[in-house]
Specification:
Elements: E1 9-12, H1 16-27, E2 33-35, E3 51-52, H2 56-61, E4 65-68, H3 73-80, E5 92-95, H4 101-114, E6 118-125, E7 137-141, H5 144-154, E8 159-164, H6 169-195, H7 205-219, H8 223-234, H9 246-262, H10 271-282, H11 293-297
Parallel strand pairs: 1-2, 1-4, 2-3, 4-5, 5-6, 7-8
Antiparallel strand pairs: 6-7
Helix pairs in contact: 3-4, 9-10
């Protein structure tokens, strides 16, 4: 199903991501109405058929679907607080601004107070350059009925899906995934820093090693991580022989730290993990697997 050409769409916020969203709408001939504090950022959209307006209020008045993508939730409140409630009535607002669940709830409260018929929160799980590609994932949470009305138009941006009707679901799921991104990236970069110290290293070697050795080890088979997830679900972390015990993991980490030091590499991404393992083993978890770290992270008394 193609986008609903009768559903007018507006975009508030033309930073790198907001611009990409507006551009995708414009390229599908949806003629989005757009606004940004700095009007110059909208100039490249006019040749594509976008309508540039001088205020957020006019941007809202122009459409039923209002997509907001700003630097943070504080900017969302700052801009929307200056809008007259009368112009918001009957409109659907999709807020693709990144925020913590508590901030998302406050944004939803403001939107409903202003008179928007529906607030939907969005999490964009791709980079601006990939907006508009079918494989690009976009998660949304909020009213199913409202989502189903706007979903054909959102498909212009990639592959959208409603992940829950509770308003914070998409944003929460986004933060969960980004947690892993930074953790994985930290370990990945720690490994590359060490790899560069190998005898005979030359430019180009790092990419080849990452492509042919590092990434295939973890991206082709996620069974080890699924085992950890099952242990977390069961609350049973004692090793059954499938994975290494925390006592063994500590020896491995100490070897990594020693090797890093001998090669002049800091272990800043490894040391916090060692600290967590030490806490759990000192509490009696020496025979448990890495999954037990969830209990340390979840302990409010730490």
């Amino acid at each position: 199903m193609g986008p609903d050409s009768n559903l007018k769409v507006s975009v508030i916020g033309l930073g790198v991501m907001g611009y990409a969203l507006a551009q995708a709408f414009a390229k599908k001939d949806l003629k989005p109405t757009v606004w940004n504090r700095c009007a110059q950022k909208a100039l490249g959209l006019e040749p594509l058929g976008a309508v540039v307006v001088p205020s957020a209020s006019e941007c809202i008045k122009a459409s039923r679907l209002i997509v907001v993508c700003l630097v943070n939730e504080a900017a969302f409140h700052n801009i929307l607080s200056g809008v007259e409630p009368a112009i918001c009535k009957g409109r659907i607002i999709v807020n693709a601004t990144t925020g913590a669940p508590s901030q998302i709830k406050k944004s939803a409260e403001l939107a409903m107070k202003l008179g928007f018929s529906t607030y939907i929160h969005g999490a964009i799980m791709t980079f601006p350059a990939y907006i508009g590609y079918p494989e690009s994932k976009l998660w949304f949470s909020g009213s199913r009925a409202a989502y189903e009305e706007i979903e054909p138009t959102l498909r212009v941006l990639g592959s959208p899906s409603l992940v829950g009707e509770e308003i914070t679901t998409a944003g929460f799921q986004d933060i969960v995934c980004v947690n892993m991104l930074y953790g994985f990236a930290g370990g990945f970069l720690q490994s590359l820093a060490l790899y560069k110290t190998k005898s005979g290293w030359k430019p180009g070697d790092t990419e080849i090693f990452a492509r042919d050795v590092l990434l295939p080890m973890f991206m082709r088979d996620g069974s080890a991580f699924l085992d950890l997830a099952r242990q977390v679900d069961a609350g049973d972390y004692v090793s059954k022989g499938n994975g290494a015990k925390l006592g063994q993991q500590l020896f491995a980490l100490d070897n990594i730290i020693k090797t890093n030091t001998e090669h002049g590499i800091a272990s800043d991404f490894i040391l916090p993990m060692r600290k967590l393992l030490m806490e759990r083993t000192e509490a009696g978890g020496v025979d448990e697997e890495l999954s037990a770290i969830v209990e340390v992270l979840s302990d409010p008394a730490r």
